Amino acid sequence: MARRHLAIFLKGTAAKILSGEKEVDIRLSQSRIPPYLAVQKEDEILLKSSGGKIIGKASVDNCLYYDKLTPAKVKEIQNNYNSLAIAEEDFWDSKRGAKFATVIFLKNPHKFLTPVSYKKNDRRAWVVLKE
User: Fold this and answer.
1) Mean pLDDT over residues 21-25, rounded?
2) Radius of gyration for the chain, computed over Cα atoms and rounded to the nearest angstrom
3) Distance (Å, rounded) from C-alpha 9 to C-alpha 80?
C-alpha cells in the first residue's frame, strides 16, 4: 500500500520539483532516519517549503538506498544524480560525512491551486504521514 510523506525543502526547491526542473530528491544523513527505507515506489510526497505551506505533491517513481557511505561514495552519488537533483555545491560539501543516502526519483508533480497549512513543531525534514 502506498504511503504518504511530508518532505520539507529549502526555499525554492519544492517549486523546482513542481516545474519539472528537479526530478530527483537526495536525502543524506548520519543515521537511519526517514526517508531512508521508509519511502518506496508509488508513494505520495507532499511538498512543503521550510516555514511555509504545502504547495503541491509528487509521486515516487523509484528509490535507491545507500549505507556505509564514505566521502568518495557521496561524491559518486553527486556525479551520478546531481544533473537531475540540481543541488548546490554547498549542499554536497555539508553532506560529505553522511553515512546513509536515499535517492528518490519523482514523477507526476502537481501544484496545488491553494497552498495547504500544516502545523509542524519539530525540525524533522521528512515525516511519514500514512503507513
Assistant:
1) 97
2) 14
3) 21
Nearest to 35 by CA among 10, 79, 4: 4
pLDDT for the residue numbered 120: 85
Distance (Å, whole) CA 11 – CA 124: 16
Q: Phi/psi at 72 (nearest 5 deg)? A: -65, -40
Strand order in the sheet with 24-29: 24-29, 100-116, 54-66, 44-49, 4-9, 126-130
pLDDT at residue 99 tops 80: yes
Task: Compute how many other C-beta atoms are within 10 angstroms of the C-beta atom of residue 127.
Answer: 18
In whole numbers, what is the pLDDT of the chain averaged over residues?
Answer: 95
CATH 3.40.50.970 fits 4-112, yes or no: no
Q: Is pTM beyond 0.90 here? A: yes
| 131 pLDDT tier (thresholds 50, 70, 90) | confident
What is each CA distance from 23 to 40, 75, 107, in whole angstroms? 16, 19, 7
Taking the domains of the chain in order of start, what are their residue ranges? 4-112
